[in-house]
Write the structure tokens for this entry.
Amino acid sequence: MGLYIDDMEQYKDYIVLITNAKAGIRLQGLINDEELSISSGASWGSSTIAGAGEGFIKGAATKFATKFAGEAVGSAVNNELKTVLSTFKGYEGDNGVNFPAISMNLFPNRFGNGSYSDIELMLAKLTQPDTDSFTDRLKSYLYDSSDTLKIAVGTDPFKNQLVHVSVGEWLMATGLTCDSVNRSYSKYVDDEGKPIYLQVSFNFSPYKSLNAEELSSWVQK
């Protein structure tokens, strides 16, 4: 691979591009993973409406039993009576989308990455706070704090913003936050004494719950 590392066209299906314009992040390398797995889930809980319906039925049955058999029986009916309504569940939200952990090889001064120092700065901006002094409020390099004010007027400030991740020409995910970055430098060095490559593993997640259209739009083909 090292002999043809400058031939981008040869590896276009395996190229991973990670960008964030606000922080000046542009990292491009070759994917290590054989597969990419995306998972999603839902959270279901007791239905409020069904619970109210069962409460009405239990109330009527308890009142009837109390009237004809006394409070003790009415109380027993209230405690024991169960209906199918009690098994009804309602949708409470999603359990999040697990974006695949991306593992890629980055090469210094190749694919527009710059030096290892440049790469490390971009990697750090994905997770570390932007501060100038001990008294500074912690903020992200990925967006301006003032952007969040748009939420108050019903505008989504992060739509198609934050971190963008593409794999080849088939996957493009936007609106991602970076949860972790793990680095491993090659033990082999070049003629200049620097590691041949840097292997980096990323964990990303969407900044909000995604509807079906938003999630399916990640796959471009």
User: Anything to note?
Assistant: The CA atoms of residues 67 and 150 lie 59 Å apart.
